[in-house]
Structures are given as structure tokens and as C-alpha cells.
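The instructor's notes for this session suggest beginning with a concrete chain rather than abstract definitions. Hand out the sequence below and ask the class to guess, before any prediction is shown, which regions might be ordered.
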Amino acid sequence: MGYSKYLNRREFLKKSGNLMGGSIISASAPAIIRESAIKKTPNIVFIITDQMRGDALSCLGNPNARTPNLDMMAENGVLFENGFCNNPICVPSRMSIFSGLYPHQHGALNNGGPFFNSAENTLFELFKNEGYKIGFIGKNHMMEKTVLEDSADLCNIRGRESFRAYSNFVTPFWHCDTYEPSEKCYTTVNTDEGIEFINDIDRPFFLYISHFDPHPPYMAPSEYTSRFSSKEMIIPEYVPASDLTPRLDDFYRGCKYNEIKDSDLTETFRYYYASITYIDDMVGRVINALKKKGILDNTIVIFTSDHGDFMGEHRMVRKGMFHYDALLHVPMVWYAPGLIEKRFRVKSFAQSVDYMPTIADFLDIDIKKSLPGRSLKPILQGQDVMDEEHTVFASGTYQDVPGYIFGRGEIPERDKNLPLHTRVQQGFKEKNNKRTAMVRNLNWKFIQTDGYPSELYRMNGGWIERENLAEKSEYAYLVSKFEKKIAQIWHR
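After discussion, reveal the predicted structure:
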């Protein structure tokens, strides 16, 4: 494959690691206002993965990734280089995608929920009111099951395969081949059902395919893992967690990432990127099904992830309630040969709350301006003007690493049989805890966390935080500016 258009390995490493710098929807959720005008009826296929980094694409020069189908979508559609989610873990992020609301607006700030107990003011309501046939396949993690089943014409919910269940033997970087052949793994099963849905379609449709991969435990069928060698994997340059914030350093030491070896990391990389190639193959199958059906020119295919993964940054893997680009920067690819411009890569910032207004715009549906996101349709159709000050936002709640992890106090009975990483992250299931929020634009990132000093990073268009500048007096004006921005957004 030629990479004349792409970042080479050195450029990739510079970009990603070497640059300075259930319950109800919240009462604040806006109602969708619909017009009676004649509307276009494009089909929408929304493919979402779990825990895929935004730079995990070979078209971005990632030396570990092999994603020919996603590269094709990007080259013949639009790849938002700066696509971000609004929370670094599953539930809040997915609910933001489906509602167009920030986590503190829809009410789920961590994986404890609450889930939506109504389809009102979600993408489901939008499509249902337009007469679309709705298919939901795969991981849920955002809506009460009965509501989901009532909202979709086809609803097959499944998360991880049974052999991927956690046990107290699962280390933070556990990985192996799947225990079943690929045709029995859920990523294939989800795709098979999605293609069957496409083949049986007789009216405009919205198809949501939600894959568990590449979420840990990191596993992939042997036909994919055999294509990768751990010796060929490249580890990002090390930036110590202690250079960012004591909270991240506690997490780093609590999970014993300080004991991780290069061979642990590169072997984990092997399985992580193999599972992404597996996903990529399944995306290609969906594209081919649309072509064969003759509807690709009137279908918008969206590919994204709910959040990212440290995957080597700061010598860590997996996730946490941290607002760093390793976890918030996600793939965001729009492919629609008959409906959007062939633009390949754009630098404009986009975020998960932009999906609702953008899809509504393509369907000629007017929604209230109080939604926090913006329509990306003008950018998708060639009107991109880079605004360096345009900000993306993330909000969540967290709990400190339990003291017993560091030998202070007894391990609670409920935690004794949990794997270490899950023990460290127990706070993800707690509600109404300490708040953390982030604002980010092209050049700067600011993080505010209850109980800890603020964080300010010079990003310079990159995707890695290197030095916390918040305590330096020359940046006090920026700290004040971003503090006001967070307060303004959180209380909106």
C-alpha cells in the first residue's frame, strides 16, 4: 500500500506522542421539533466499536494498525482527525451519541447509569417519527432493554462472549486468541445479522451495529492474531503519569502498570490491533452488502467508537475516568458516496453530541438550537473552515483509587474476587461522586477535577498531553478562561 497521502511512522509518533503541548432523561433534555416539509430519506448505517483509539487507523500512519476498509471509507468520504467522545467510558458516551446531550445533561456521568427509560428525544424517536425501519444489533449499555426492544423493528442485544467474562485472574493486560472460531464470535454474528437486515429492507432504515471489540480482555480469532507479530509493534514514547497529575499516577501504580514489561505491552498491542483488523473486515462486508443491494449511493455509513484506550500511552492499557486524548480521541469516519464530499481528512473538531444535529440536518429535521452539538453537514459537504477556538467538552464523575490498593485498610468483601484493574476502578459504578470536566480545542486542553489541581496542556494539534502548565503564572489567563468555559457549559 502506498502511503504518500498518509503520515509515516515517524510523523505518527510525533503526532500522537511527541508534541508539546435505569431512570429518566434529565428534565433539561430538549424536545425535537419537526417540520412538515418534504424530506430526503437517506439510509443510515451506524457502526460503533468499544474502546478503539482515534489514531488506530493505518491511514493516520499508525504503524501497528491495518485497516484497509476504514482507510477506503476515509479516502472516499470524510475522516475527522479530531473526533472526540464526551466521556471516556461506555455508558455516558453512548448516551451522548444517542441523545445529543453531554453526560451531565442526560444524567449518566459514569457506568452506573442511569440508562434511558424512554426513547423520547433520542435518535430512535427521530427515526421512528420519520417512518424508518430500525435495526439494533450488539452491545447496548445506554437504554433499558424493554425500551430498546419496543423501539427497534429488529433488536438483538449481545455484549461480550461468555468466554470473555472477567475473573480474579484477569490482569490489566490479559490477552489471548478467542475460544471460538471467527464465525461464532459476536463481531461476525453482529455483521451477519446486519447484512441480513440490509438484504430484507424495503424502506428507509437506520441500522445500528455495536461491536464489543476491541474492548478487553483483548481477544481476536487466530486467523487475525497470526497476521501480527509482537516484535513489529511500536510502543509510544514514554511520558510518565506523574508528569500529568497525582491522580493518574495513583491509577498507574494501583494497576501495577509500573511492573509492566515491554513484552507485555507489545503482545497486548498484537491482540488489540488484530481485533481492529477483524472489525475492519466486517465493515468491508457491510459496505459490500450495501453495494450489492444497490443502495450505497443513498446510504450514510458512520464509523466511530464510544471511547479509546491508553494502549501504551504512559505505559498503560485499558481505560479510566480520565480526560486524556488516549481515551477521548475516537475514530469518526463518514462515508456516503452519493451524499457527501470525497474529502479524506479534515482537521475541524467534532464530538459525539454532533451526531444528533448532523443526522437531523441530513433528514431535513429542525431541532432546537439548545442542543450543545452542531451539525457537521456543512463540513461533510465541503464548507470546512478550521476554527482553532472551537471547543469539545467532556464531563464525568469519579472516585479515588481505594486505599487498600496501596495497603491501607482491609479489602471489602465485595472486592475480594474482582480482578485488580476492576478493584482500582470501583468508583465507576458509584453515583454523585467527585466531578471532572474537560474543554479542548486545537492548541489547548484544560481539565478540572474535584480534589486535585487543574491541568493545562499545550496540544499544538497533537493527541498526547506532556506537561501540565496550569501552575505557571504566564498561563493564568488561560486557566481563568477555561474555568469559566467549564462552568458555563456544566450549568447550561
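Then share the key points. The two ends are 48 Å apart (CA to CA). Residues 36-384 form a domain with the Alkaline Phosphatase, subunit A fold (CATH 3.40.720.10).
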